Amino acid sequence: MKTEQLLHENVPLKKPVASVILVCDNIMSPANAGALIRLSDAFGIQKLFFCGKKIDMESNRLKKTARSTEKYVTISQENSILPLLKKLKSKGYNLAGLEITTSSMAIQNFIPTGHATALVLGNEQAGISHDVLPLLDQTLHIDMFGKNSSMNVSHAAAIAMYELTKPTTPHEK
Predict the structure, then answer these.
(1) CA torsion sign, 10 to 36 to 132 to 142?
(2) Best label site of 2, 35, 139, 168, fewest CB within 10 Å?
(3) For residue 85, what pLDDT is reported?
(4) Residue 1 domain-assigned (yes or no)
(5) Residue 172: pLDDT band by 50, 70, 90 thresholds?
(6) Is 10 a member of any domain?
(7) Residue range 83-88: average pLDDT?
């Protein structure tokens, strides 16, 4: 049997296993924003919120990194993250922040509740804002084995989205 690479239009679309939205707390880099948009499309993320500083959706760097997925992902820009998180909480979302803290759990051990999950990502330098942490239902971290305790936000988001959307039982594949 000869293995051939498939074109995107020849790959059957799969339905996401989990209901996840992405909330970005002051993401600044157009490259990271573009990567998060592209990842959101790849993992079937229902909606992507950029909170804080406005992202330039016309940035060439963003568009190059997003690879046209900005046309397919539902994106909202919010001035402040706090009212958004309170609204999501009132709608039953489980608020999970991707941040290493004294009480964070390894993301592979996280079992989402029956509610949808809002994954909160922090700023490239400062992480999740200190006033946001108390609103979160839990904080999750990625087990790492090197000396550094952090990675690029879009790389961390890719790992987190994979963990949050992967099938949990064989029949969901």
Answers:
(1) positive
(2) 2
(3) 98
(4) no
(5) very low
(6) no
(7) 98
Per the structure, the complete domain to which residue 52 belongs is given by 17-168
Give the CA dihedral 32, 162, 80, 33, nearest 10 degrees: 20
Could you tell me the CATH number of the domain that includes residue 112? 3.40.1280.10
User: What is the average pLDDT across 92-106?
Assistant: 96
Residue type at position 78: E
User: Is the predicted pLDDT of residue 118 greater than 90, yes or no?
Assistant: yes
Give the span between the Cα atoms of 123 and 130, in whole angstroms.
Answer: 11
**Other residues' Cβ atoms within 10 Å of the Cβ of residue 33:** 26
Q: Does a structural domain hold residue 71?
A: yes
3-state helix, strand, coil in the chain (%, to 5): 35, 20, 50
